[in-house]
Amino acid sequence: MGDFKFAREKMADVLSGLGEYQVLAPLVTGDVVRFREVEESEVPVGERGRYANSVVPPKELMFPQTETLFRYRLGDTDIDVSEPAGDTGRVVLGIRPCDAQAFAIIDKLFGWDYPDPYYQKRRENTTLVGLACGDPGSNCFCTSVGGGPASEEYLDAIMYDLDDKFYLKTITDKGEELARALSGVLEEAGDAEKKAAEKQADEATSKIGRSIDTEGIPEKLPSLYGHPFWEQFSDRCLGCGICTYLCPTCHCFDIQDEMEQFDGRRARMWDTCMFKEYSLHASGHNPRPTRKERTRNRISHKYSYFPENFGVIACVGCGRCINYCPVNIDILDILTKSREAEVKEEKPA
Amino acid sequence: MMDESNPYLPYTVKIEDAWYETPGERAIKTFKVSFADEKVSDTWTHEPGQCAMVGLLGIGESMFCISSSPTEKGYLRFSIMLMGKVTSALHQLEAGDTMSVRGPFGNGFPLADWEGRNIVTIGGGIGQAPLRPIIEYIRDDGNRDKYEELMVVYGSRTSKDLCFQDELDCFMAEEGTECCLSVDIEEEKWDHFVGFVPNLLMEVEPSPENSIAITCGPPIMIKFVIGNLEKLGFKPEQIYTTLENRMKCGIGKCGRCNVGHLYVCKDGPVFSYATLKEIPEAFA
After folding, report:
1. Same domain flag for A319 and A221
2. Are residues B128 and B94 part of one domain?
């Protein structure tokens, strides 16, 4: 596939060159960086050294925080189905490789048995243009879970921020198509850019300061079901759910009906297994009644149940759950302790 | 069958008939419904043990077992206990009203694999609802010869809390079907067993020889019934139950119904005890 470059000051031309597409990029929104549609004269914030990753993961672009499934009028049985937005081509410009890997992971779930039409339509219509990480965050551990600061595997194209210019490498046909749309702006890249990109990737990889050996964890976690080690973490947990809301692979949702006068909609919204109400039965019974069971479920889902069902760990090492936990609960700490925990012979209570 | 292009869209059903099975704060009401759209009605199929999302636009939907057998053509039945927001709204409905149905979901009982065997159902309270389709399936003229003895073991707190009473009376008189009932506490004019269902099971002592036992009811009952079945010589592979958990999507995406790596909505609700005994969360 192709190798291209463009000068940093040409970013605006790149954005206008993508006029056919809806362009979504990391932008300062309120107090945080999140992905949304680029408005005129806005410049995406994905520049090296300025941030490691968006606070809110771009999963919201395929799986919005709240989404209408269909609308209806009370007393009428007709249903008006909401067409997923973005049925014209969309480009996500500047997604980190870990967040692209997260899509590849939740694709499996949204695609099994009955495919989810809302998620899949957006996914199919979207081209992912990555931005390789130059300065990984202090809690990044992508290299432990199959990723890397410049991992290309799940992207259609990847950009490297080389200070005065960007190096753009296309990976898939979708990426090629996008490069064609930008033929007026892009120049052929040479060895200098390729070498600089390679050097940057190597340096970034060496800057990844945290890691976990995942070998054996999926098989071991179920045997720790009744183990007291979970309490070291769940006792501290406030149950705020931020670890799951900001997780790029957390996919759980609630479905609720909302009424305004006679107009109603059925909508789905992000939910979290860290909330008591998530698994609460109408009878009052709760199979996961305390934060211990809920913490255990969160970790076991990512590192045992999901691998059992789909053959891949549902974690990309983005570090958001560590960065934003108000009481410093650290998934790597939990996983390390799980490796060390001794499995008791007797059956768990 | 479910709209494959969008599994979140419910079908409209018309309530043909509705009646109370049991009275009280936790009343159980049965709804007999048919699809408003003939095309859906003609193509709908389900297996005994499968579930469906039943609800109302503007209120929401909850997962219930389909309590009718596919051999009962032209309609579906749901027996619903008054419990929370959705069931309170559904209990307001009468014949002629409409509600929504989405499904069928889950795996159903492996009835084809059970051909040639004795079938023992052990139910408690509303737990008889998922067992009813097995019983009706086997009692169907086209299927009765495929199975050996049918034993229906069923109990509830009082005789008023027994569901499907007319049908139970039929089983009593039927050849090839044994029906054993119990109530938890003594009451006048009750000439069947008094005591909990697990004790009733030990009283009637079904043979494990060439048998399959299926139990549904409150978790505590299931626990003791399984223990007693093992005492009677049933192997884990001969014991089946259904699980229930809170559900939203029904198609293994929304997350919440998992027990370990299994989703009750798509991998269940029917599980053999051989599977469940390896999953510590199954009986949480």
Report:
1. yes
2. no
User: In this structure, are A264 and A118 located in the same domain?
Assistant: no
Indicate whether B55 belongs to any domain: yes
Q: What is the dihedral of CA A6, A11, A15, A18, to 10 degrees?
A: 0
**Within a domain: B246:** no
Which of chain A's residues have a Cβ under 8 Å away from the Cβ of B255?
Answer: 251-253, 271, 273, 301
Query: Closest Cα partner for B162 from B21, B20, B18?
Result: B21
Question: CB-CB: which of B5, B12, B255 is closest to A252?
Answer: B255
The tally of domains found in chain B comes to: 2
B84 and B120 both lie in a single domain? no
A residues 55..114 contacting B (CB < 8 A) = 69-70, 72, 74, 77, 79, 81, 109-110, 112-114
CB < 8 Å to A223, chain B = none
**Can you tell me the distance from the alpha carbon of A221 to that of B18, in angstroms, rounded to the nearest whole number?**
47
| Domain final residue, candidates B105, B122, B146 | B105
A304's tokens: 């045992």
B1 pLDDT above the threshold of 60 = no
Check which CATH number belongs to the domain holding B63 and give it.
Answer: 2.40.30.10
Q: Which residues of B touch A118 (CB under 8 A)?
A: 8
What are the DSSP E strand ranges found in B170-266? 177-183, 193-194, 211-216, 239-242, 258-259, 262-263
d(CA A231, CA A291): 8
Chain A closest CA to B145's CA: distance in Å? 34
CATH number of domain containing B190: 3.40.50.80
Our CA-based measurement puts residue A28 at a distance from the nearest CA of chain B, in whole angstroms, of: 30
Cβ contact, residue pair B258, A305, below 8 Å: yes
The interface predicted TM-score of the complex, written ipTM, equals: 0.93
Domain extent, residue B195, equals 111-241+275-283
Instruction: Answer yes or no: is B36 within a domain.
Output: yes
Nearest to A257 among B2, B58, B251 (CB): B58
Number of domains in chain A: 2
Q: What is the residue range of A79's domain?
A: 3-207
pTM of the model: 0.93
Candidate from A253, A287, A306 with C-beta closest to B284? A287
pLDDT in tens, A195-218: 999 999 999 999 999 999 999 999
Same domain, A149 and A175: yes
Q: How far is CA A293 from CA A229, A280, B282, in A?
A: 12, 13, 13
| pLDDT tens digits for range A72-125 | 998 888 888 877 665 579 999 999 999 999 999 999 999 998 999 999 999 999
Instruction: Give yes or no for A275 touching B (CB within 8 A).
Output: no
Tell me whether residue A83 is in a domain. yes
Q: Is A237 left (phi over 0), alpha (psi -120 to 50) or beta?
A: beta
Q: Which residues of B touch A281 (CB under 8 A)?
A: 244-246
**A72, A291, A327, B42 from A240: Cα distances, Å:** 33, 11, 10, 48
Mean pLDDT of the region B14-43 = 96
Has residue B220 been placed in a domain? yes
DSSP state of B160: G
CA separation for the pair A123, B2 (Å, rounded): 23
The verdict on B206 and B81 lying in the same domain is: no
